[in-house]
Amino acid sequence: MAYDDSNIFARILRGEIPCNRIAEDDYALAFHDIAPQAPVHALVIPKAAYIDLDDFSANASDAEIAGFWRMAGQVGRMLGVAQAGGGNGYRLISNAGPDAHQEVPHFHIHILGGHPVGRMLADAR
Ligand code: AMP
Hints:
The chain has 3 helices and 5 strands; from the N terminus they run H-E-E-E-H-H-E-E. By secondary structure, it is of the alpha+beta class. It has a 5-stranded antiparallel sheet, covered by helices on one side. A hairpin with a 7-residue loop joins strand 2 and strand 3. Bound molecules: adenosine monophosphate. Residues 8, 19, 31, 33-35, 43, 95, 101-104 line the site of adenosine monophosphate.
């Protein structure tokens, strides 16, 4: 499957539409989800074009992978949900493909917290 560079996160990365930015470096961008499902709902995306975790883990450089995950941890601390910073924890989610309801085909993780986020897969059938 080819990467579709018309997806909304590609457009954010090109500066065509705004985002509520949390952090940015050479490898990754973090911003607030436009439709938050918890008091803290951040998204972290790599700067380069990867469809999902499968694509990212197979094809990204070690520097891109390290940069991405370092930013993910940093965002949890910045938003006050990391336990090391006195927060109460958070959940990471990454949807990949139709069974997971991935809406935006640019690899991303959700960071959800700020209140108890319930058990995993509460709505799964
Ligand atoms: P997923 O289902 O994992 O692909 O999630 C995509 C997420 O992107 C959803 O939680 C949306 O609310 C979020 N989203 C869509 N458009 C934007 C946008 N322009 N800025 C921030 N978040 C967005």
